[in-house]
Design the sequence.
């Protein structure tokens, strides 16, 4: 945490040496960070930016892993239920279909967006952004996609869905014979990789790389 | 010193600093091309509007059944609170607590909390800026967790599907509840946290 007291000369410094906190608008000198460090706003404690090693390479590996897990996580059965000889399976997708067919189209669309569409779109945006940095190609589209990603971020709710699975399991345990499917493990793996990816892909470095300020970003 | 006093605007999207261009009617970020504003336009009014809409929907969300459990021809509708009580009867206290917090405490806290933030920014209430920003961050972070009950319904509807033996249907309360969650999340997004600090600066002057 760099605590630079306000100086009268602050506004006369060139823009590259300044940074403003996004949450409280405090203007300060931009701290220089080593790999693995992060800077916080001295006034409100918001994380200004962080600097990580090999951002693009590590993020690419994580994005590809997440995309591979996406299909099994959403379409393999999360759980199976046995009731008096009848079996039924649950996948993320069948939850959406079930709601849609029971006449709750509105909620079906919300569940589809939060648990399937937004997480996939986020991953695709991240993949294309990273590729455009890595291959040095179409960076203006990269900027647009990364803006879209930031608007989507709030609306992907995989971790909430996982908690929903747990609650549903507890509710069903007494009612019928319940067994866990492979889909659940893929879903948990997808969630973990996605969280890891969000921590690794530090936005400040990606914005700099996209705008061409950092020539080593593709490494 | 705040960036706005130095004639600098922070981009909402990529956090790049942009010098104020007094001649341009609409200003765009030099790095990412997003619109830059001093503060989010109409932040307080929009947040109030979203908040009031969700407060109205909060009533049917809690009173109407969110799902109906059909078992051997008998249907029993359950409200949000009913689901929590059922979990307590099953002896699942930790899970009952999670559902109670996510579906009842959090939405209520969000409605009250955002109203309090708006009121304190407009009326210069004695709450300190630190308390306000902590509350704002907490509301922003916790908002998504209220979707829990909606996902539980989606899973139950899909898996409990044994025809006349047993089935579960979603109810109208679920639609109202989902709207409350989405509208309060939007309200937290439209609220510009920098207003909290603008306000305290003028308090001290």
Sequence:
């Amino acid at each position: 945490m760099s605590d630079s007291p306000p100086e009268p000369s602050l506004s006369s410094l060139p823009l590259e040496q300044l940074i403003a906190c996004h949450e409280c608008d405090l203007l300060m000198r931009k701290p220089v960070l080593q790999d693995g460090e992060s800077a916080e706003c001295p006034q409100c404690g918001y994380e200004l930016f962080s600097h990580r090693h090999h951002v693009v390479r590590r993020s690419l590996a994580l994005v590809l892993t997440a995309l591979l897990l996406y299909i099994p996580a959403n379409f393999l059965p999360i759980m199976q239920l046995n009731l008096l000889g009848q079996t039924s399976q649950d996948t993320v997708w069948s939850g959406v279909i079930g709601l849609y067919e029971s006449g709750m189209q509105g909620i079906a669309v919300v569940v589809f967006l939060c648990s399937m569409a937004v997480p996939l779109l986020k991953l695709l945006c991240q993949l294309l952004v990273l590729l455009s940095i890595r291959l040095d190609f179409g960076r203006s589209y990269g900027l647009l996609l990364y803006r879209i990603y930031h608007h989507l971020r709030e609306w992907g709710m995989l971790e909430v869905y996982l908690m929903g699975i747990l609650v549903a399991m507890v509710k069903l345990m007494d009612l019928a014979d319940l067994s866990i499917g492979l889909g659940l493990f893929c879903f948990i793996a997808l969630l973990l990789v996605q969280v890891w990816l969000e921590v690794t892909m530090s936005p400040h470095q990606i914005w700099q790389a996209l705008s061409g300020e950092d020539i080593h970003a593709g490494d | 010193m705040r960036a706005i006093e130095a004639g600098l605007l922070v981009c909402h999207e990529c956090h790049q600093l942009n010098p104020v261009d007094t001649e341009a009617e609409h200003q765009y970020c030099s790095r990412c091309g997003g619109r830059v504003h001093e503060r989010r336009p109409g932040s307080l009014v929009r947040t109030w509007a979203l908040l009031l809409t969700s407060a109205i929907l909060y009533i049917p969300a809690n009173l109407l059944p969110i799902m109906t459990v059909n078992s051997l021809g008998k249907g029993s509708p359950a409200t949000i609170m009913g689901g929590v009580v059922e979990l307590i009867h099953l002896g699942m206290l930790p899970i009952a607590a999670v559902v109670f917090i996510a579906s009842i405490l959090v939405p209520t806290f969000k409605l009250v909390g955002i109203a309090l933030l708006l009121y304190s920014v407009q009326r210069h209430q004695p709450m300190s800026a630190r308390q306000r920003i902590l509350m704002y961050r907490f509301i922003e972070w916790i908002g998504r967790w209220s979707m829990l009950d909606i996902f539980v319904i989606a899973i139950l509807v899909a898996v409990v599907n044994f025809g006349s033996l047993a089935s579960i249907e979603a109810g109208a309360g679920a639609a109202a509840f989902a709207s409350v969650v989405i509208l309060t999340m939007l309200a937290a997004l439209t609220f510009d946290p920098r207003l909290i600090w603008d306000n305290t600066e003028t308090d001290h002057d």
Observations:
- The mean pLDDT of chain B is 84.
- Chain B is about 60% helix and 10% strand.
- Chain B touches chain A through 64 residues (CB under 8 Å).
- The two ends of chain B are 13 Å apart (CA to CA).
